[in-house]
Structures are given as structure tokens and as C-alpha cells.
Amino acid sequence: MAIRGKPPTVFSYQFQSSLCSPTSSPSLVNGGFFKSKAQRKPLTFRLSRSSSKANDPQDDYLIDAPVSAGDGFSFSGGKYSDGPNPSDEWFKQGKFVKAYPVGGTGEKAKDPIFGLTMGAGSQASGDVFRWFSVESGNADNPTVILIHGFPSQAYSYRKVLPVLSKNYHAIAFDWLGFGFSDKPQPRYGFDYTLSEYVSALESFVNEVATNKVSLVVQGYFSPVVVKYASKHQEKLNDLILLNPPLTAKHANLPSTLSIFSNFLLGEIFSQDPLRASDKALTSCGPYAMKEDDAMVYRRPYLTSGSSGFALNAISRAMKKELKAYVEDTKAILMDKNWKVRTTVCWGQRDRWLNYDEVEDFCKNSNHKLIELPMVPICHAFKCHLLTKIPVQPLMQLYVCEVSPAEIKIN
Prior knowledge:
Layout: E1 9-15, E2 38-44, H1 86-93, E3 95-101, E4 128-136, E5 143-147, H2 160-164, E6 169-173, H3 194-208, E7 213-218, H4 222-231, E8 236-242, H5 255-258, H6 265-270, H7 273-282, H8 291-303, H9 306-334, E9 341-347, H10 358-365, E10 368-372, E11 387-391, E12 395-399, E13 408-409
Parallel strand pairs: 5-6, 5-7, 7-8, 8-9, 9-10
Antiparallel strand pairs: 1-2, 3-4, 4-6, 10-13, 11-12
């Protein structure tokens, strides 16, 4: 006998936000916080079995699918309308690049809490990992690879790509564990250690570029890229570091990110899309995001629990390895054998990485420093572009809401 129950109806709230100037008024609304209006609407969850006929590899990322992805942590919902949204439009611009072989025994991943076999989103997609990548410009032009920070996505470079495409072959990608790229369960093919990321980056660069490239990287992933660059100087034209951790004070993750490394509490918070995405992105600077953009960053955490589990693993790896990698970064960039043209671009309103000792480091290492006193070059905001900054003979890099008077080049 089969019993069919009436699907339960719960209520969600839609928040509409606008980006407000942090200096125009002392009020909360005009102080850089979200201006929100809650709208109550029914959200129905359907309890049904996943269909096995969906063979499209892109189906893993359809947040609006009627059923769970099957890992026990997914949500069948999370959209605000049936119309086009920035996440869908961004996904259409990209493609999957296969790079870096899957490690392990090939055993199916199981969730760390219940021990149940997880859905496709938490499994390795094959023998080689898939990286979501968006390219712009003629492939015959010099290649510039744009690398997002922790915990962001390639989407943060969406406004840089069309600008660079005029003279360069620009590529932005999601790291493994982020955005639309593969997010295997830790210990099932990828453990999210920094050394693995160095090797994985090498594989990706070799896959997308045969000639020399220039790298632009932001934040806490900078030491990974510097480590890669130290092993492949012959492959690089230029290296541009956006607010990289360079000093002993930078060697610890902020509490907003380190919380995800905590036992149990980290697992809980990483499955909360607002805490894993919104809070992590908006706490690093004084600006707020538009709701449409926030939904793009939030979407992976709404789609599957695999994003949260990857966030736990990366946070733990950073907490364990970041200090040594920051020390290595300093040593590499100060080494007399370092030949890659390097520029440090620093937004001084970054709440996570302070400016102390950065100027002295650049002087001692003889690297160009570009200061942006009124700007936080942080994960979500570095690409709301208004002003171009000449960086070496490489390119004109567009960074955060600044005017020429706010730029200081040392």
C-alpha cells in the first residue's frame, strides 16, 4: 500500500537590497548595510525520488531542479523568480575545462555525518576534475588568467573580462570547491590542501595556455599562486597580487572564515548559505552587494551540501598551512633569483588584511606598489569598475570604485 501525503508548505522571505554609499548618511541604510524589504511567499518542497535520466553534466548545477541532488543537504528552491537571473547568464558564458587527475581509489564519497553515499555534486565527475571557466578575447592575444580569492568565485571578475578582451585573452575560473567547478567530498579524490591547489593550478594553466601567461590573484589564494609561480617563472610574464597576505599579521584567517574549521559548529555554519556566502563576503569591506549579485555567490550553497563541506576543508587547510605559505611567499618575492615582474595592488579599507608593513615589504623587495586608500580590494567588490590603473606594460587593470585622486603609485 502506498500512502501519499500532502506536501508541506513553508514560507520563505525575499530580500531586495540596494547598494548604498557608506559615507552619505550616518543611518543604517546609508551606512553600507542592506536595505531590505521582506515579502512573504509560499515555498513548496516536493518529496520525490531523483530521476536517473538526467545525463547532462551541467544538471548538477540546476538549483531550480524539482528534487534534491541526493546528498541529504540540498535544497529544491532558492530562486526569487522564474525569469532570467545573473547566475544563469554567467553560467551560459562559461565552459568546463578538464584538468588535474582525480586521486584516491574511486570509492563513492559518503557524508561525514550520516555515512550515506552522497549525490553527484559531491562526487568526482570522472578521472579528471572539471573547472568552470569563462574566457574573453582573441586566443592569439597575450593571456591573462584572473584568479579569485577565498571564499569568492570567478563571477567577481565579470566586469574585468570584457575590458581586457579588447587586447588580451582573459580567463577567469572557479577554484575546485567553488562556484560551478567540481566540489568532491574531502578524502575522496581531493583534500583541499594548499599543496594540492598548487599542483592543480599547474594542471589548469597547462590546459588553457600553451604560451606565457600573466596571473592576477586576490587575497588568501595569493600564496598558492606565488608558490606555483616560483616553480614556473619561465611560464609567466607578470604577476599582480591584489591584497595578498605578506606579513606575520596576515598569517591567520579572520574569524569569519576560521569559524568554518571548527568541529561541528563549522559543519553547521557551512550549510547556512547566508553565513557561508553573504556574511563571509560582506564582512571584508564597507560596501554591500546587490541582491542579484549576492544570489550568485549564494547559489552553490543552496544547490548542494558539497560546497559547505569543501568550505570546511579549505578553512582547515588554511588554518594549518597559511602561516608557512605566507613565510614562503615573502621569501620567494624577496629572493634575488625572482625574475617575474610583480605588482602589489592594495586597497587600504580591507578589514581582513591590514596595510601595516606592506609598503616596507614592497620597497625592500623592489616590487611596485599601487595604493588605493579608499578601497577594500576584497572578494566581492574588487570588480565594480570605474577607473583604470596602469600596471607594468601588461594591461590596464580595473579595480573597485575609485577615482584617480584615490590612487597612489609607489
